[in-house]
Specification:
- With about 260 residues, the protein is α+β, with helices and mostly antiparallel strands.
- It has a 4-stranded antiparallel β-sheet.
- It has 4 helices and 4 strands; from the N terminus they run H-H-E-E-E-E-H-H.
Length: about 260
C-alpha cells in the first residue's frame, strides 16, 4: 500500500510561480573580458612558441657553429701538429747535417794539420838533405882537389922516381913486379944471403890510399921495424931510404 504525500501549504507557498522571472535574471550583467583574455593568451602563446622556436634554432645554430669551430680548431691543431712534426724532422735533419758538416770540418782541419806537419817535416828533411848534399859536394870537391893534388904529386914523384928507381934497382939488387891488384906493387930483393945470392926476399906495398902500407912480407920480420919504415915513407914520400931500410930489415930476417 502506498502512501501519497501531498505538498503542504507552506511548500506550496514557497515555490515561485511558474511564469515568474528567475533570480539570476535579476542580477546585474558583468563583462569579465574572457574572450579578450583568451585572444591575448593565444597571441602570447603564439609569440612564446615562436620565441622558443627561435631560441631553439639559435641554440642549434650556435651549437652547430660551435661544433664547426671545434672541428676547425681540431683540424687546425692537427695541421699545426703535422707542421710541427715536419719542422721537428727538418730541425733534426738540419742538426744532423750541421753535426756532419762540423765533423767533416774537424776532419778536414785535422787532415790539413797533418798535411801541414808532413809538409813542414818534408821541408825540414829537404833542407837537411840540401845541407848534407852541400856538405857532401864540398867534401867531394875537397877530396877531388886532394886527389888531383895527390895525382899531381904522384906524377911529379914518378917522374923523379924513374931514374931513382933505376938506380935503386941496380944498387939494391931489386926488381918490381905487379901482383894483379890495382895500386899494389911487389918489391923483390936478391943478394941478401951470402951463402945464396939468388935467395929472394920480398914485400908488397899498398899505395891505394894517401898513407902507404906494407901488406905482405916474406920472410916474416918485426912488425915494429916495418911500421917505422912505412911511417918514415909516409912522412917524407922519399922511396929511396924506405927501400934501403926494408932491404936491411929483410937481410936481418934472413940471417
Amino acid at each position: 500500500m502506498g502512501t501519497m504525500f501531498e505538498p503542504s501549504l507552506s511548500m506550496s507557498a514557497m515555490r515561485p510561480p511558474t511564469n515568474a522571472p528567475s533570480m539570476a535574471d535579476s542580477l546585474p550583467n558583468i563583462n569579465f573580458g574572457f574572450d579578450d583574455l583568451r585572444d591575448r593568451m593565444a597571441r602570447f602563446t603564439e609569440k612564446f612558441d615562436k620565441f622558443i622556436d627561435a631560441g631553439r634554432k639559435r641554440v642549434l645554430e650556435e651549437r652547430n657553429h660551435f661544433h664547426m669551430n671545434v672541428a676547425q680548431l681540431q683540424e687546425d691543431q692537427r695541421l699545426r701538429k703535422r707542421e710541427i712534426e715536419s719542422l721537428n724532422q727538418k730541425a733534426s735533419s738540419h742538426a744532423q747535417a750541421v753535426d756532419k758538416e762540423a765533423a767533416e770540418t774537424a776532419e778536414m782541419h785535422a787532415a790539413i794539420a797533418s798535411i801541414s806537419q808532413q809538409r813542414d817535416a818534408r821541408a825540414q828533411h829537404r833542407d837537411r838533405i840540401r845541407g848534407e848534399t852541400a856538405a857532401v859536394r864540398k867534401h867531394i870537391a875537397q877530396r877531388l882537389s886532394a886527389q888531383q893534388q895527390h895525382a899531381s904529386d904522384l906524377d911529379a914523384q914518378a917522374q923523379s922516381n924513374v931514374p931513382e928507381l933505376d938506380f935503386w934497382q941496380s944498387y939494391l939488387c931489386m926488381r918490381i913486379e905487379g901482383v894483379g891488384i890495382a895500386d899494389r906493387l911487389k918489391f923483390i930483393f936478391t943478394h941478401l944471403d951470402e951463402k945464396n945470392w939468388e935467395r929472394e926476399a920480398s914485400f908488397d906495398l899498398d899505395m891505394a890510399k894517401s898513407d902507404y902500407r906494407v901488406v905482405s912480407v916474406k920472410p916474416k920480420m918485426e912488425v915494429e921495424r916495418i911500421e917505422r919504415c912505412v911511417e918514415k915513407l909516409n912522412e917524407t914520400r922519399d922511396l929511396g931510404p924506405f927501400l934501403k931500410g926494408m932491404r936491411e930489415a929483410l937481410a936481418t930476417a934472413l940471417k
